[in-house]
Design a protein that fits this description.
With 421 residues, the protein is an alpha/beta fold. It folds into 4 domains: 93 residues, Response regulator (Rossmann fold), CATH 3.40.50; 165 residues, Rossmann fold; 82 residues, Orthogonal Bundle (Helicase, Ruva Protein, domain 3); 54 residues, Orthogonal Bundle (Arc Repressor Mutant, subunit A). The protein is built from 18 helices and 15 strands. Strand 2, helix 2 and strand 3 form a beta-alpha-beta unit. The radius of gyration is 27 Å and the shape is globular.
Length: 421
């Protein structure tokens, strides 16, 4: 049993008379079939067979598209692709559907991926911690998809979005007449998640009086509906998430220490986007594809210079802020297929030093001997304009968009600068 490497129609035809443990398709393929069609052809012959693609320095949007369609892996360097073959041959299977929930492959995310891979099949309670907007729910969904419970529901509860008076009934259910307004019995979220997973988001906001009841559920694996003496046995995997420092809340008497230790069996810390800036191109492509598809628009692309700026931004709102920023850029760019820096309105509060091109920095040594302000500004403007024109192939309209000004303003500045040469 081995991994079949497919490079042309002849090797693809070989699949009809054999069943390998996996398939590695090298792109560009020596035929007319597109990657999506190749994936469909392989799965048509052998449903569920692990299929990986390899393209040297392949584009992120192609990887995202194929992974979403069911590819097991996508490699853009030869060493990784070579390592996949013996791994699959030894394991006999290589299917990680949970990877479809997580975009990017930056070094700081590797420990997170490793934890999901190891922890997914287990029942252990997980506490996901990270700043607002880092994608904690996506991590929870990846954990669920990596588990043996993947065929059962994952039920999400935002503990900060429900009034305290309703949260207990929402979590554990209630009988008819249990309280004013309870016109009929209702199954709680824990019962809805039976044999599946419950994700308790913003667990730090859980009212103190309900924390004791949640602790009992975690200890005894059972609950009672409000108004009922009947005990319901639970087979539910619990994943909680918070952007708050629970230790700090414990010190101030707002969170139970015993509940914290019950939840924090296996912690996962999600790094902020500023620490995983290498993932920004793949994330931006993913959001562009998602947004354009939802709006029935041709898929837009980000100008390379724009990606450098996005990677240098601090992103205080993390991945959620990036998605909102990409959506705004798509909507405000009209019919234009390429997004330039001017399309992304980024607050100054999030700027970082990495966002400033080194070639444009004013040397501190020059400040000690004095600078002619007008000459320095003109030199800087000329550098920026020349750079933008080179990057846009001399297209003044695109260069103006890239610099965040009107075309007429750019033309006027160019005339002034030419006159001062």
């Amino acid at each position: 049993m081995e991994v079949l490497e497919i490079t042309d129609p002849q090797t693809l035809a070989y699949l009809a008379v054999t069943r390998p443990v996996g398939v590695l398709i090298r792109l560009p393929f020596a035929g007319e079939e597109r990657p999506e069609e190749l994936l469909s052809s392989v799965h048509g012959l052998h449903p569920g067979l692990p299929v990986a693609f390899f393209r040297e320095n392949g584009p992120a949007h192609e990887a995202i598209r194929l992974l979403r369609l069911g590819a097991a892996e996508y490699f853009d360097d030869a060493d990784s692709a070579a390592g996949w073959r013996p791994f699959v041959e030894k394991a006999g299977v290589f299917v990680e559907p949970w990877r479809a929930f997580l975009i990017g492959n930056s070094p700081v995310m590797q420990p997170v991926f490793d934890t999901i891979r190891l922890l997914g099949p287990r029942r252990s309670t997980v506490l996901i911690q990270g700043e607002t907007g880092t994608g904690k729910e996506m991590i929870a969904r990846a954990l669920h998809a990596a588990s043996t419970r993947a065929g059962m529901p994952i039920v999400t509860v935002n503990c900060s979005a429900l009034p305290d008076t309703l949260l207990e009934a929402e979590l554990f259910g209630h009988t008819r007449g249990a309280f004013t307004g309870a016109m009929q019995a209702r199954v709680g979220r824990f019962e809805q998640a039976q044999r599946g997973t419950i994700f308790l988001d913003e667990i730090g906001e859980l009212p103190f009086e309900i924390q004791a009841k949640l602790l009992r559920v975690l200890q005894e694996r059972e609950c009672q509906r409000l108004g009922s003496g009947e005990t319901v046995k639970l087979d539910v995997r619990v994943i909680a998430a918070t952007n708050a420092e629970l230790e700090h809340r414990i010190e101030h008497g707002k969170f139970r220490e015993d509940l914290y230790y019950r939840l924090n069996v296996v912690p996962i810390h999600i790094p902020p986007l500023r620490d995983r800036w290498q993932d920004i191109p793949a994330l931006a492509d993913h959001f562009l594809e998602k947004i354009c598809q939802a709006e029935s628009m041709p898929v837009k692309r980000v100008f390379p210079e724009t990606l450098e700026i996005l990677q240098g931004y601090h992103w205080p709102g993390n991945v959620r802020q990036l998605e909102n920023t990409v959506e705004r850029a798509v909507m405000l760019s009209g019919d234009r297929r390429t997004l330039f820096p001017a399309d992304f309105s980024l607050p100054r509060s999030g700027q970082s030093r990495r966002a400033v091109p080194a070639a444009l920095a004013v040397p501190e040594a020059g400040l000690a001997v004095g600078l002619d302000l007008q000459q320095t500004v003109q030199k800087l403007e000329r550098t920026l304009i020349d750079h933008a024109l080179r990057r846009t192939g001399g297209n003044k309209s695109h260069a103006a968009d890239m610099l965040g000004m009107k075309r007429t303003t750019l033309t006027a500045k160019m005339k002034v600068l030419e006159a001062t040469v």
